[in-house]
Amino acid sequence: MELEQIIQSPEAQRKLYKRSLIVVIISQIFGGAGLAAGVTVGALIAKDMLGNEGFAGVPAALFTLGSALAAFLVGRISQRSGRRYGLSLGFIAGGIGAIGVILAAAYDNLFLLFISLFIYGAGTSTNLQARYAGTDLADEKQRATAISIAMVSTTFGAVAGPNLVEPMGEIALVLGIPALAGPFILAAVAYLLAGLTFLIFLRPDPFLVAKGIAAEQEKHIKRKSKDVNHLLQRTSNRVGVLAGAAVLILSHFVMVAVMTMTPVHMQNHGSGLSAVGMIIGFHIAAMYLPSLGTGVLVDKLGRTFMVIASGVTLSLAGLLAAFAPGESFFWLAIALVLLGIGWNFGLISGTAIIIDSTDMKTRAKTQGTVDVWVALSGTAGSLLSGVIVAYSSYAILGFVGMYLSLLLIPLIIWVHVKGRNKKVAKAVT
Fold this sequence. Notes:
By secondary structure, the protein is an all-alpha fold. The protein has 19 helices and no strands. The longest helix has 41 residues, at 10-50.
């Protein structure tokens, strides 16, 4: 069906909305598997090559820094050309980066490793930005739920990925490359398949359809009112964007910082790759699996309530990580599960606030810009986590995470009080 026909047909829009969600679900299953590789073994590869755990946060910092650049580019491409091109190019770049990591490990080339991890980060940010693709044709009461559907589908690949660390390591050894590079074989295939899924099947592009619908609505309003400036003010809310961005940045910083150093902390206390992979699998499951319930809660109970829930849950995770014995699989697993759930609450509520606060003229570009800062916060968390653990302890890292998480509560309450005008209140409640 032609784009113009879909713009004029609410029934066709509903069908495209459902079809787009199916495409997002399939691609996110692949994308989740690609995402898990770097999270699980990236720090361990760096530790082996560099011989110092103080630099163990460098790989995560590199691929989160790469993801920041990719988030910016994917957002700009999506705004101009649609989600299909932006998301497919991001995932394909991530797959190419994963291939580079495999070659770097095979030839023990540190420079190639760092460059490849930077490129691999494109898959990480694209996996995150794909959550927006399901919301383009969703109405206001469906937005958080649509985000959740995209995110929960990531669980299938993301949980399988860490638990395939050992089998993929064995495959890598058969191929004559280090075992730790094995998960990146999975990542390369998974990211390339995710990119091809978007490129082939995400058409008509839901974002371009949504832009067309918004343009038609604006024409209709212009015919009835000359107050176009009022329309633009009504559909764009800077305070809401800043509030949503702050929630995403803080929750992501805490999650990445604690998660990055947990594999190293466990290995230092005698845990094997299988145990590390299992805990990271639990953590990633907790990041994505609660999404369907979280989306409903965000839509029903409100954005502010769930941001507070995020702050409380993340602070409990940091506190538990600080006190958990390094050799205790059970308590570290509980801490990492809470860390994932808290991040999930923050991501979905913060994302919903941003969508509520933007219009189609700037939405994808704004989403990309916000995700740049989210990625940079992950870079900072990765780098600082290694330094904190090297010069103090993993327990101190847990306490830092707890204190930062608690900042979410006064932040969102302040924004809620400040946003007494109807538009801001609508975005954050």
